[in-house]
Each structure stands twice: as structure tokens, then as C-alpha cells.
Design brief:
Blueprint lengths: L6 E4 L15 H24 L39 E7 L3 H17 L4 E8 L7 H11 L6 E5 L3 E3 L14 E2 L18 E5 H6 L13 H11 L4 E4 L9 E3 L16 H4 L14 E11 L2 E10 L13
Parallel strand pairs: 2-3, 2-4, 3-11
Antiparallel strand pairs: 1-8, 4-7, 5-9, 6-7, 10-11
Length: about 325
């Protein structure tokens, strides 16, 4: 089979285990304590010598993302030209309360895709219930609620902006295409990583039964979806010929100001590493509160306010209390 020169097939790997995963031995605990002790001593030394900068006299307002302009500084337009091709992208953005990032994301991505002549619809799935954030379920909602005139989707983080115009957002006819590959993503570099930005045809997403709905809080849903791609025997592709390395994307999330919900409660600590053989599109439960067509700096997007439902007998960790 001939592959696109900008997309290279990826061998599937066994998932990498973290330092403390599996059986925790006394040697691992001793090593971890020594590392923490050394870090504490270095921190204390820097603080005493005055080399550690503080925010005592500084501005305590939340940091803002840098001012961003669409490629070439152009104003976003509302063009969606059918002459660009038969395929149309549903760019699905799981979202909650990150409005500063959304204000930068929508006009930037709209202009980026227009310049590449990618027909698209930006669909923001806003979680409005009282449960913990569930990125995977929101992507499932986006898939089900996206318009019928779209035939492929991008699972796209709101805080990740592509800076290299050579990145391919076209129809992934050969198989799922991981745009934010480990060789390019500014933060995550392990071989089985498929998060950030992933393109799939709607047919392939349905073949995986979507994503698991069991992942409340931040993280791990992408690792489980990697297993689904393998089970569905779908060939994964990643970019080739991109020379910008870890500067290929701009990550506009400020972790110091907006903390991620990484808590693991009840049996979630054990369940997060398991495969969900049944959950996905077939058992997602939600209500659409409202649907709005918005324009941000000339860029159109659809905002769907969704209330997720949680079976607390199966996933009691959807609530922290």
C-alpha cells in the first residue's frame, strides 16, 4: 500500500508503565524519598541565596496566554468552500471554563484550516453538569451531535495550537492520523501516546465504539483509546517530514494557575489501568441543554452545552465528595 509522504505508519507498542505502577517495592520507595530529599535541599538553597524569584510583590492576577494571530495575521473569514473537496472535518473540542483559551483557539484554528482549504465545523462540547470533567464522554457527545455533512473528526485539545503549516489535517483515508505525535508534542513523548490532536474517519471512530466513559478527572482516557485502535486493527499514522520538533505546537495552558483534576479516588486507582470492553458510544448518557452558533473574531463555531450522566454504582469517582 502506498502511503502519503506526510504520514508514516506506526508500529503498536506495549503501553509503558510508570515508575510506581505495578508492585511498589521498598527499593522504589527508598529511591523516591532520596529524590524528594535532594529536590527539597536544592529548593531551600535557592530560596536562601535569593536566586529564587517570588511573587510577593508581583501581580497575582491569573497569567494570560500570549497574544495570538492566525497564520499570516489575517482576519478569520466564514468561508466554507465546497470546491475545497468532498470531505468535511468536525473539529471536536471538549471544554469546561477555559474561556481565555477558547477565545484564542477558535479564530486561530478557523484561519489555519481555511488557509489549508479544509472544510470544517468547530464543535465545542461544554460540560455543564456538576460531575468531574470527562474528556472522553464529551468527545463521544461531539461525535453523536456533529452534523451529518461532516465525515471525519479531530479530537482536539483547546490549549494546543499548530504552528507548522505543513501539518496535515486532511481526510485520514488510510487510518487514524495522530497530528500531535510524541516526536512533536511539547509535553508528552511516550510511544503509545495518542492524545492532543487525533484525526479519524467517523467510520473508524464507530468501529472503536468511541471512547470509554469511565474516565472522570484528568488523564488516562487516551491510553485506553490506544488499546481500542489496536483491537479494531486500525493502522495508526503520524506526521513525517516535520522538522520543527517540540516547537511544532504552542501549548497555552497555564498549569500554575489552572490546576488539573488528577485526583484518584475510591477504586479509580485500580480501574484507570483496565480496558473498558463494553463502554463507549453504546452506553453514553447525556442531555443537550442548548446549542448555540457563535462567532469569535469572525470565526464561527457551534457550542453545545451538555449534561453528562453518571452511574455512581459503576463509576463512583465521577464525584470527589
Amino acid at each position: 500500500m502506498m502511503y502519503s509522504s506526510r504520514r508514516k505508519p506506526v508500529l503498536y507498542f506495549k503501553e509503558e508503565r510508570s515508575f510506581l505502577s505495578g508492585k511498589c517495592t521498598i527499593y522504589k520507595l527508598f529511591g523516591l524519598c532520596m529524590v524528594l530529599l535532594l529536590v527539597s535541599l536544592m529548593w531551600l538553597q535557592l530560596g536562601c541565596s535569593g536566586e529564587l524569584s517570588t511573587n510577593v510583590r508581583g501581580d497575582r492576577r491569573p497569567p494570560q496566554p500570549p497574544p495570538l494571530c492566525p497564520p499570516d495575521g489575517g482576519q478569520a473569514s466564514a468561508a466554507d468552500d465546497p470546491s475545497w473537496g468532498p470531505h468535511k472535518l468536525a473539529l471536536i473540542v471538549p471544554f469546561r471554563e477555559r474561556f481565555d483559551e477558547l477565545m484564542a483557539f477558535v479564530p486561530f484554528m478557523h484561519t489555519f484550516l481555511n488557509k489549508k482549504k479544509i472544510r470544517h465545523n468547530i464543535v465545542v462540547i461544554n460540560q455543564v453538569d456538576h460531575y468531574r470533567f470527562n474528556r472522553a464522554s464529551l468527545i463521544n457527545v461531539g461525535f453523536l451531535e456533529s452534523s451529518n455533512d461532516t465525515d471525519y473528526l479531530a479530537m482536539h485539545d483547546v490549549d494546543l495550537l499548530p504552528l507548522n503549516e505543513a501539518l496535515d489535517y486532511g481526510f485520514p483515508v488510510e487510518g487514524p492520523f495522530h497530528v500531535a505525535s510524541p516526536e512533536l508534542h511539547p509535553l508528552y513523548h511516550y510511544k503509545t501516546y495518542v492524545g492532543g490532536i487525533l484525526l479519524l474517519t467517523k467510520k473508524h471512530y464507530r468501529a472503536c465504539n468511541g471512547m470509554s466513559n469511565r474516565f472522570w478527572g484528568w488523564g488516562r482516557e487516551d491510553d485506553e483509546f490506544y488499546r481500542r485502535l489496536r483491537k479494531a486493527e486500525l493502522q495508526l499514522f503520524r506526521p513525517s517530514g516535520i522538522t520543527t520538533g517540540y516547537k511544532t505546537f504552542l501549548h497555552i495552558h497555564d498549569s500554575a494557575w489552572r490546576k488539573r483534576d488528577q485526583k484518584r479516588v475510591a477504586s479509580q486507582k485500580q480501574e484507570q489501568f483496565k480496558v473498558d470492553p463494553e463502554g463507549g458510544l453504546t452506553n453514553i448518557r447525556y442531555q443537550v441543554e442548548s446549542r448555540q452558533e457563535l462567532t469569535i473574531s469572525g470565526a464561527p463555531c457551534t457550542v453545545i452545552n451538555a449534561k453528562l450522566e453518571c452511574d455512581q454504582d459503576r463509576t463512583p469517582w465521577c464525584l470527589l465528595a
